[in-house]
Amino acid sequence: MLEKIKATSSFIQETTKFEPEVGIILGTGLGGLVKEIEMVHTLEYSEIPNFPVSTVEGHQGRLIFGHLEGKRIVAMQGRFHYYEGYSFQEITFPVRVMKDLGISHLFVSNASGGLNPDFEVGDIMMLTDHINMFPGNPLIGKNLNELGPRFPDMSQSYSKDLCEVARKTAKENNIDLKEGVYVGVSGPTFETPAEYKMFRVLGGDAVGMSTVPEVIVARHMDMTCFGISIITDSGVPGQIEVVSHEEVQKVAMAAEPNLTLIVKKTVGAI
């Protein structure tokens, strides 16, 4: 893995001549952030050695290099999911590469189903913690000490300092920012009513099919993380309706401006 990381990182460095300090995974709801980035370079995933290629509608496949709020950033326009058939190591490989490129902060966004009865479809939730319900962990296997410790601490998965900046930004701009625990599951099926109920009992406020593997790997490498989610459907008893990927994208687009503003200002505060 180390050889692959170094080979991929070297290719990107030689091609872009750019040294990023912040990494952003532009999941559902953060596509509009691309317009805010002063682009310096872009690379298609298909051009990058050892990189997977996104197969999900709405997830383009390219790395964007540029400046945002005075920070040098690299943004993944399109992420990878376990349900696409990738291994946990493949899903998180880009995070490893971004770390090797020089980033120390990782921002992630996603779409999720609401579990908290106080949440409504279209709300934005900042992640304060997560529960890993994926059938595995990206750190299973031989540990590479060059990347991080065998047993990494996860008590501070999401930066309290960055969360405080996001709270302040939301308050100043009259954005109703929710907070809560994200439950990560494999997908690709949306949850049954019984599963929604179980995840709520376990302590979840929202459930989705991404983010957790990337954050685990980022924390393994001692990166500071910030996560944010758009509640695109409800798993609250009595509010559950038939949901489709198209509906999820529609709700995410409506919430995108507020999500973009919060992330942009939080990046600027680093």
Strand content: 15-25%
Radius of gyration based on Cα positions: 17 Å
Question: Which CATH class?
Answer: Alpha Beta
Order of helices and strands: HEEEEHEEHEHEHEH
CATH homolog superfamily: Nucleoside phosphorylase domain
Oligomer: single chain
The structure class reads alpha/beta
List low-confidence stretches: none
In total, the number of strands is 9
Helical residues, percent? 25-40%
CATH architecture: 3-Layer(aba) Sandwich
Largest sheet: 5 strands, mixed, barrel
**How many domain modules?**
1
CATH topology name, in short, is Rossmann fold
N- and C-termini, Cα separation: 30 Å
Count the DSSP helices: 6
Q: Order of strands in the sheet with the most strands? A: 5-8-7-6-9
Helices and strands in order:
Elements: H1 2-16, E1 22-26, E2 38-44, E3 62-68, E4 71-77, H2 88-101, E5 105-114, E6 124-132, H3 160-172, E7 177-184, H4 193-202, E8 206-208, H5 212-220, E9 224-234, H6 245-268
Parallel strand pairs: 1-4, 1-5, 5-9, 6-7, 7-8
Antiparallel strand pairs: 2-3, 3-4, 5-8, 6-9
Helix pairs in contact: 1-2, 2-5, 3-6
List descriptors.
270 residues, alpha/beta, Rossmann fold, 5-stranded mixed barrel, 9 strands
Question: How does this model look, in words?
Answer:
Helices cover 31% and strands 25% of the residues. It has a single domain (2-268), classed as Rossmann fold (3-Layer(aba) Sandwich), CATH 3.40.50. The two termini are 30 Å apart. The longest helix is centred in the C-terminal third of the chain and has 24 residues, at 245-268. Helix 1 packs across helix 2 (88-101), helix 2 packs across helix 5 and helix 3 packs across helix 6. By secondary structure, the chain is of the alpha/beta class. It is globular and about 55 Å long. The mean pLDDT is 92. A 5-stranded mixed beta barrel has the order 5-8-7-6-9, surrounded by 4 helices.
